[in-house]
Amino acid sequence: MNGAPAADGPAHVGLLRKELPDAVLAPGDDGFDAACAGFQTAYRHRPSAVVRADGSETVAAAVAHAADHGLSVAVQATGHGLSVPAEGGVLISTAGLRGVTVDAGARTARIAPGTRFSEIIEAAARYGLAPLNGSAPDVGAVGYVLGGGLGLLGRQFGYAADHVTSVDVVTADARVRHVTADSDADLFWALRGAGTNFGVVTGMEIGLVPVSRMYGGELVFDLARVPGILEVYRQWTGTLPEELTSSVSLVAYPDLPMLPDRLRGRHLAQVRIAYTGDSRRGEELTAPLREAGPRQSDSVAEMPYTECGSIHDDPPLPHAYLGDNVLLREFGAEDAAAVLRGAGPGSGVPCVVEIRHLGGALGRAPLVPNAVGHRDAHYLLRTLTPLQFADPDEARAAHRQLLGAVGGVREASVGRFHNFVYGGCEDGGAHRPADDLWEPADHGRLSELKAALDPANMFRCNRNVRLA
User: Which positions ≥6 away from 69 have C-beta within 8 Å?
Assistant: First the structure.
């Protein structure tokens, strides 16, 4: 691990309390455990102190203190994307800093660092606008955008990071910076796609898109009755306009009495659709899926964008999970067959497997370049295992086996996507370093910038950029 030896422990916590008397929590204090907890419960931050941010000045003071004492700094709002938990050091909680201000004329939203997408969706909808959020509106917006942000409307509008216009960030030197393409092109490039490697974000301005309704929902198939649906989906994606973004998830539900009959013991394919064109054309585009065979359920219909969370219906309660992914240039018939074999009821470890259709605007560089790369990928294959059903080591092994079973993975793979790596970013052992989250040239540029701006690697409790 990089960084100076930490002067961690009660002495530094006492000093920090004197500097920030109303903001600091230590182990044993009321509220400490709640401040460390997040949506991800497989592991959690265990800092020696939590600083509850109430603005940029508090954040800057906490970063300065950490730098003076050789401590790591972790950042958490909702805790959905936790990848490397802190052991000691300072955790800066931005969960209490929430708020969104919409500029309808400019089609932008100014957001505080603890803001969830549900708040932005509601505020933007008043003006017929929408953010480029992902499947779960309860996710913290800033962390999602810093990792790239692969959203429901990605094929039409690109990554959420492509639409950031400014970032307020406290860097490792405890400076509060307002960063734009004009003020600091290198740092602005890096912040949009490299996560929390370069500082603590205290505010962000994001672009909104003119979307107020869509044709969307979910088609669910029982693979025992429609075994060819994955191949139908694969071929169908080659015919779609950019206005339609979709994915398919494969889930083998255990035969347990507490599950409803529609799920119990079934291997299901869940096709999710978000289309911004008119509903009549949407019906025509989805007809090949409906003609593939009988459906367990079909919720695809006209809806206001404010109901977009119903498409994936992600679980709202905190839980333990591990996940990984691979970005693919191609996803052929043999690859689809390999995924079905690896993700079926006979697999030893339960895995939710998802194939996301990319391309369109996701494949084009934005007007203002950023660190989100691998834009030549046409599909994303990801796995996720809820850990109430599996041992973490077994889950990691199952993910490696499944992702590696894709026939052309060595030739077709271009890397991994930042937001969908849940755990396993520590260097060494069975864990994979984060290097392949970026293209090689981009990783080199990030490494040099990291060495210049954070030479002690203070911001290392994340999908870490290794220093040059």
Answer: 6, 7, 8, 12, 15
